[in-house]
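Q: Can I see a sequence and its folded structure?
A: Here is a first one.
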Amino acid sequence: MKKINLLIITSLSAFLFNCSETKDLFSIATKDLKQVYKPTETVNLSIENVENAKIDSVIYFSNDIKLGKSTENAVFNLKLEKLQFGIQDIKAIVHSEGEKTECLTSFELVSNITPKLYESKDYTILNTYSHDANAYTQGLEFYNGILFEGTGQNGESTLRKTDYKSGNVSKSVPLSPDYFGEGITVFNDKIYQLTWKNKVGFIYNAATLEQEKTFDYFSDVEGWGLTHNDKHLIMSDGTNKIYFLNPETQKMERFINVYSDTNAITELNELEWIDGKIWANIYLKDVIVIINPENGAVESAIDFSDLKTKNKKALTEGDEVLNGIAYNPSTKTVFITGKNWDKMFEIKLK
């Protein structure tokens, strides 16, 4: 499990800033603050008052969201359980004798769940199927028993219908060479497909694969992975963020930061919604993580490096990357493949 441990256990970084550096009278007391916290902890915030000036009140914020107010310089007990994972930029506005002073500090909030690690002995390969070794797989999803696949690379990107048992492609729609195809998902008889850097997505008729419309991204982000639950399209952009989009407007309604109990998990790629959890490939890793969609906590990590060894050598250096997760609701099994893999595997966790 060395690869997973290297992924999950990396060095942490957080930075402490304080208005004392500008020689103000006040600063956030950092003596007892840590760089890293977990949601079960409480942070006690107060103000260093070097000249014992009169403090009327202090208002505290985290990432510009108001946390609360303390009278005079009473200790403010910040419970972390409702804050989002990630860097917490803490701001204190000190009111003193009609003047306001702004003080800053920062710490990182990580998950309190240690991911459960699965190896090859923890899953069963039920079946092995052929897969197009020329398909640079970006998205994979079952819909009404049919396997849909989105592929990438400029000039080679497609949207396909596939017979998963034979590996035969029954229909393929090419994208313009200007577009690098990315993740796909099927929601309410419509196929949604992302592009990498063009900041535009496509919507198709699931029965005919005819493109019906395009949509612009909600922000200046890249398109990587895509899946859905019964309410949202769920999108990754190659960072540790996962976005929940309105299917009708494609606008973001909320997002989560994905964290283990030590650090942010970045380069999240292909996504799949399985039994109320988000499964996510991590780019260039032979690992899939299972994520709590409510708070972003990584609950499990599965080492699929053994599957990669069962494929022929990649056509180009670096192409043979694990990427492709599809849940088949009729069999309740998971299908795994990769970019330019010649095989696809049907697996089940033990």
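Q: Show me another, different protein.
A: A second, unrelated one:
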Amino acid sequence: MTIGGPGDDRLSKSQRRDAARHKAKQLREDQKKKDRRNRVFLQGGIALAAIAIVGLIAVVIVTSIRPVGPGPANMASDGILIGEGMKVVTTPALSPEAKPIPSKPDATGTVTDIRIYLDYLCPLCGDFEKTNSKQIAKLVESGAATVEIHPVALLTRKSAGTEYSLRAANAAACVANYSPDSFFEFNSAMFVDQPKEGSAGRSDGELVAVVKKAGVTSGLAPIEKCITDRTFTSWVDAATTRAVTGPLPNTDLKAIKGTPTVLVNGKQYVGSLTDPKEFAAFVLQAAGETYSTSTATPTPTPAPAAG
């Protein structure tokens, strides 16, 4: 195989060698030019990729830093308090960074104070809710007890990246804000066909559907907007932090360590989550102890004998 063109066979050996050298030199120069072009394209591509990465990081940072916003109305204690007749004790919305105002238990000891910290993705919370929701409702309806429900978001990172716990607690805050007397029904509905921990959970649209299934009619449009806008997510984050760092009011328990955390007159229930009789007995015991303490009168001190 020859390197030159037609007629190269008529060239001398020296001429053919010079032609080969010239051809090789030309090939090397062409390759250098090609390499320089590739480096320019590569460097330009790297620069564009770097710009894109920086932009993506900036977007992530901006979206992950949620500006502090006001809390929902009717949750000034970080929970929603439901009393006789299933009526919510209304409270104004707290301004950003304001400290929560603890609810005051009944001073007479005749109304049992039930407080529940829950996560809507927590399967154990689902067990407790399905087991005890009806008997709690009867106690509250009759005025024998109040129930204060604190939605928290401990499992936000366990929903395949969708932040379901956070969004679900935000939805609860939206209902508390716009349709408070529907909150108990909504809370119960959230545990019907409860999403499994580790799953994506419900979409925002599906959360709105739960609101409708719970019979919420008043404030439905603003609730839907509140859910899709995720209006109270910064408040949920703050309330969750307060719950896990403490102090918790009206109890010797310093902070919650998981969900559900159930307090009855300040005492933590640690019994079965699937035995309604065990929880009922605990409520009766706590109520009896509180009543006897609140109604106890000091033993009279004997008068000194006359000298």
